[in-house]
Amino acid sequence: MAERILIIDGHPDAAAERFVHALANAYREGAEAGKHEVMMLRLGEIEFPLLRTQADYDKGEPPQAVREWQSMFDWASHVVILYPLWLGSMPALLKGLLEQVLRPGFAFGTKRLGRWPVKLQSGKSARIIVTMGMPAWLYRWYYRAPGVRSLRKNILHFIGFRRVRATLIGNVAGLSSKARQACLERVRALGQRGK
Q: pLDDT, tens digit, for every residue of 5-59?
C-alpha cells in the first residue's frame, strides 16, 4: 500500500556534504521508486522563531510557515526524521521545530479523557534515522539510546504514533565510501518499502 511520507531532514547545517542530507535523499529516491507520495522538509533551509514561553506554546498563533509544516505533518501517514546525534540527542533546532509544529490543539488535545491528553496524530508510523560519531551498538546498548527513546516515547507515541522504528548509523566520520554506499542503499530500500 502506498504511503504519504513526510521526510524531515533534521540537520541544521545546510552544507551539502553532511551525510544526513545524502540519507534523506536516498530515502526519498527509494520512496518515489516505491510509488509513495513524498514531501520533504529540510531544517537547514528554513527559518522560524523558537518558542520562549508556555503561553506562546499553549495559545500563541503559529507563524504561517509553521501552519504549512503542520499541514504537511497532517497529510503524512508515515514520517521519517533524520538527524545527527549531538550531545546524546537531536540538535536543538530540530527540537525547536518539533515544539513549533506539535503544539496543543494540533498534535494532542488539551481536554483530558481520564488522565491522558487526546492524541490527535493517531495511526501514523515513523522511522527515526540517526547518524553519530560513536559506534551505534554503544549508543543503543550501553547508553540505551536516550535521545531516540525520548523522541519515540515522549513525543511521537504521546501524540498517537502507533509504530516508531529506529535506524542508527555509527562511526560516521570513519565510514569508508563502500560502507557509506551500503548505508545509502539500506535507507533507499527502507524508502521503497515505505518503512
A: 999 999 999 999 999 999 999 999 999 999 999 999 999 999 999 999 999 998 8
Cα–Cα distance for residue pair 3/37, rounded to 1 Å = 6
Q: Point out which residues pair with 164 in neighbouring strands.
A: 126
- Grid cell, residue 34, equals 516505491
Range of the domain at 166: 4-193
CA gap 76, 156 in Å, rounded: 13
* CATH number, residue 77: 3.40.50.360
Give the pLDDT of residue 68. 95
57-60 long-range contacts, Cβ below 8 Å, gap at least 24? 57/99, 57/103, 57/104, 58/103, 58/104, 58/110
Mean pLDDT of 96-117: 84
Q: Which amino acid, one-letter code, is at 21?
A: H
Average pLDDT score over the chain: 94
Helices (H) and strands (E) in the chain, counts: 8, 7
Look at strands 108-113 and 116-119 and give their pairing: antiparallel
Segment 103-119 shows an average pLDDT of 79
Give all strands (DSSP E) within the chain, no chain letters: 4-9, 37-42, 78-84, 108-113, 116-119, 125-131, 163-169
Say how many domains are in the chain. 1
